[in-house]
Write a structure and sequence with these properties.
Elements lengths: L1 H28 L6 H16 L5 H24 L7 H23 L14 E4 L2 E4 H23 L1 H11 L1 H6 L4 H27 L8 H12 L4 H21 L8 H12 L14
Antiparallel strand pairs: 1-2
Length: about 290
């Protein structure tokens, strides 16, 4: 059982990062960004591009995340900010359109083929008591947890992070406290894109780089709903739970149903507890 849990935690850590991006944007703007999966894909393609220069992994990792951060800012300023006074549904539809646009652009530039991305981690197996952990899984989990910790420390101890956190909690109250909302919204979109990019980079050695990587956003979306779409800790909890439940379902039920488990969980949570595990009831926006 513990062996299966470890495998679930690895995939869950990636779902958690993408789910955090979903929740960051939703809490601050009330918008569900359906282009989040394509931002995962963009991060992987940035990493693939920088790998062609034979850069050390840590350098290409940072460069890909930074480039994705600016892509997120660009999306906010070109797509979302002009629609700020429009109905939220208009912005959601715009993110749908953006997801198709990004995917089409990637296919135009790179084609539809799959590109292998060599894992930077040593091909080793670690044994702890009766547990067997691959080096790749161990490093993916560790890096994901470190990124989550960095974001927590950013929100907790830096002025910019506190502004982002305050805006994510209550944009109207943050505005009354003198926080520049437009600038902070841009930073939040950038941070969300960077989180998605990190997920894409970590996922690349496992699934290869392709225009279809964005499918992971469905599971991340289910994770955000499970944990509570207005709760940042809930996104992390939901991500790990989806990863663990998905893995256990594949082992004890059938691997053929692995990809539909997230959908089943999504429906069950929406019917039984729409606010999620750690989510709270919110007042409807006018």
């Amino acid at each position: 059982m513990l062996q299966y849990l470890i495998s679930g935690i690895t995939s869950g850590s990636i779902y958690a990062l993408v789910a955090l991006g979903f929740v960051l944007i939703y809490k601050s703007t009330g918008i569900v960004n359906f282009a989040q999966g394509e931002l995962v894909m963009i991060g992987a393609y940035f990493a693939l591009f920088f790998s062609s220069f034979h850069l050390p992994y840590i350098i290409l990792f940072i460069l890909a995340a930074i480039c994705s951060f600016f892509v997120g800012i660009l999306i906010h300023n070109l797509v979302c900010r002009p629609l700020m006074r429009a109905h939220h549904l208009c912005v959601v539809i715009a993110t749908f359109a953006l997801s198709f646009l990004i995917r089409s652009l990637i296919r135009f530039i790179w084609g539809s083929q799959y590109y292998s991305f060599t894992s930077p981690f040593p091909d080793k197996i670690y044994e702890f008591w009766d547990l067997i952990i691959s080096s790749n899984n161990l490093w993916i989990t560790v890096i994901s947890l470190v990124i989550m910790l960095v974001f927590y420390l950013l929100f907790k101890f830096t002025k910019t992070g506190k502004s982002m956190f305050a805006t994510a909690q209550n944009a109207d109250a943050a505005s009354l406290m003198g926080i520049g909302i437009n600038k902070t919204f841009s930073l939040i979109w950038g941070a969300s894109a960077a989180l998605a990019a990190v997920s894409g980079i970590l996922l690349a050695p496992i699934s290869a780089v392709s225009p279809y990587m964005g499918g992971i956003s469905i599971k991340a979306f289910a994770a955000a709903v499970l944990g509570g779409f207005n709760s940042l800790p809930g996104a992390v909890v939901g991500g790990f739970l989806i990863g663990i439940i998905e893995t256990l379902g594949a082992i004890y039920i059938s691997s053929a149903y692995k990809d539909i488990i997230a959908f089943i969980i999504l429906i069950v949570v929406l019917v039984g507890k729409p606010t999620g595990i750690l989510g709270k009831e919110t007042v409807k926006r006018a």
